[in-house]
Amino acid sequence: MNSVQTKTNWAQFIPLVTVFFFWGFVAASNDILIPVFKKAFDLSQGQSQLVSVAFYIAYTVGSILYMLVSLAIGKDLVNKIGYKNGLALGLTISALGTLLFYPAANLHSFPLMLSGLFIVALGFSLQQTVANPLAIALGPITTGSQRLTLAGGINNLGTTIGPLIVSFAIFGSAASANTEMSIESVKIPYLILGVAFLLVAILLKFSSLPEHPETIVESDEEVKNSRSSALKYPQLVLGMIAIFIYVGVEVSTASNLPAYMEKHLGFLTKDIAPYISLYWASLMIGRWTGAVEAFTDNMSLQKILRFIAPYLAFGVFLFVNALAKHDLSVFYIYAFIILVLIAADIASKGNPARMLLIFSLLGMVALGVGMATSGMVSVYAIISVGLFCSTLWPCIFTLAVSGLGKHTSQGSSFLIMMIMGGGIVSWLQGFMADQTSIQASYIVGVFCFAYLAFYAWKVSGILKTQGIDFDKKISGGH
């Protein structure tokens, strides 16, 4: 084994996080496409959620293809072609998907639009498989989850500005929202996005990123307790369900919000973008807060940064919306809601299981308020779910792969596969909305958070029986 890294390799980490930005940009932009497609193609709310289904199911299909190819060549695909080549290949696949938007817009074809999104996400699947463990590997293991949280914060920079840029590209500054014109307007931003994919593929190919980063060998204790497969570890199996549920509630909360604001509050489709942007900015706010330990070991400085980081992220949201000439006064009240996030972050004391439990319970409360109230109170309650989803990915990911040893990479691929929950849960909530009402359909999210709270409680006991106690292993981390 090579010498252990003591500091994050920023020269390698910074170019890597560009792919995290793209994932967020496209995923959040889907929330603008959903209401546009719904009107243009005369779809029900359930049918409109096929946008999310096509996008997130591609992650599962991509993971299955990855495993099949690895079996066919007798070796893990990424280990064979290298990490940089894996990222470049994933970006190229995504670029090919954006090309379909041009004929899809010209032919006014919803299935072709879905096909384009599917191929874009197929490329993202390979990128995710490579980039998540690579982010952890580019520095000391003790701050690996913080780097993943920081990368998630860059992801949410993309989710914050994505809806604004796509909305501007579709609607412009004109008051008219002619759906035929809007569909035609979709193809240009996605073709530009395809060019960006290819440029970043070239950048990463010639970057200093390692083709084969140092792997972590098992400790003597882990070797002794090693099992035959990743699926033999209950923390992973229950964690796979948790990832499915988490991505599902994160995506469905946002993707059903535009229809609620249109139908119940009288918003125009083109005026919803800043609220969708705030939802995804909320994840950025939480992740910037959770990533402070990747920068410093000084506990006093960490306490200060825990207050500065979330409001700095909130300032980014306000700045990009100011550039888009949106009214900012309606968003200032959200600064007080952020205090709840800070208090919850401090209360977690760096234990990922405790953070998962606290944030899941707060997610249930937020959706409960959103369902029980009306007007802008309900909107802000639903948007605040983004705050409480913010650090759940690194929490679940860390808990699910803890103790897996040599099966860690296999376990990681199983977790990436479960991103399909973003499509399934969104469709389920859309179906519930058609049967009841959009506001009542958020009960689906309440049940999702209930499972995540259960997992947080259950996995703590499971890991302790395996000799893993995060209160002892981690000091102030996420």
Describe it for me?
- This protein is mainly alpha-helical.
- Helix 5 packs antiparallel against helix 7.
- The radius of gyration is 21 Å and the shape is globular.
Short note summarizing the structure:
The chain is mainly α. The chain has helices at 10-40, 45-48, 50-73, 77-81, 83-99, 101-107, 110-137, 144-171, 179-205, 220-224, 234-255, 257-265, 273-290, 299-323, 334-348, 352-372, 375-383, 385-389, 392-401, 408-417, 421-435, 443-465, 470-473.
Order of helices and strands: HHHHHHHHHHHHHHHHHHHHHHH
| Termini gap | 27 Å
Outline, from the CA principal axes? globular
Strand content: under 5%
How many helices? The count is: 23
Radius of gyration: 21 Å
Poorly predicted runs are: 173-181, 215-220, 473-478
Keywords:
single chain; 478 residues; mainly alpha
Task: Give the topology, please.
Elements: H1 10-40, H2 45-48, H3 50-73, H4 77-81, H5 83-99, H6 101-107, H7 110-137, H8 144-171, H9 179-205, H10 220-224, H11 234-255, H12 257-265, H13 273-290, H14 299-323, H15 334-348, H16 352-372, H17 375-383, H18 385-389, H19 392-401, H20 408-417, H21 421-435, H22 443-465, H23 470-473
